[in-house]
Amino acid sequence: MRARGIKLIEKRALKVEEKTELQELQLKEAKHIAEDTGRMYEAVALKLTIDDLEGKLKCTK
């Protein structure tokens, strides 16, 4: 009876460990996606600023 309880606890612990590992992988992937998105946002913002400044420069000529 006691061994059965121990096996049940070990099985639950293994499931929790597997779930934790999966969540850690998902977190890493989400961080990479967020970093890529941040870089793309900065690139687009810079391009829009440059385009805006070029447009203003053309208007002043």
**Helix/strand order:** H
Oligomeric category = single chain
Reported for the largest beta sheet, the result is: none
Radius of gyration, CA atoms, in whole angstroms? 26 Å
> Roughly what percent helix?
over 70%
Mean pLDDT: 95
Number of strands: 0
The outline comes out as rod-shaped
Q: What is the distance, rounded to the nearest whole angstrom, between the alpha carbons of the first and last residues? A: 90 Å
Percent of residues in β-strands: under 5%
How many helices does DSSP assign?
Answer: 1
Structural class: mainly alpha
Low-confidence blocks of residues: none
Question: Would you kindly provide a written description of the structure presented here, covering whatever features stand out?
Answer:
- It is a single chain.
- The protein has 61 residues and is mainly alpha-helical.
- The chain has one helix and no strands.
- It has one helix at residues 2-60.
- The longest helix has 59 residues, at 2-60.
- The N and C termini lie far apart (90 Å).
- The mean pLDDT is 95.
List the SSEs and their pairings.
Layout: H1 2-60
Salient structural properties:
61 residues; mainly alpha; rod-shaped
What can be said about this structure in brief?
The chain is built from one helix and no strands. By secondary structure, the chain is mainly α. It is rod-shaped, with a radius of gyration of 26 Å.
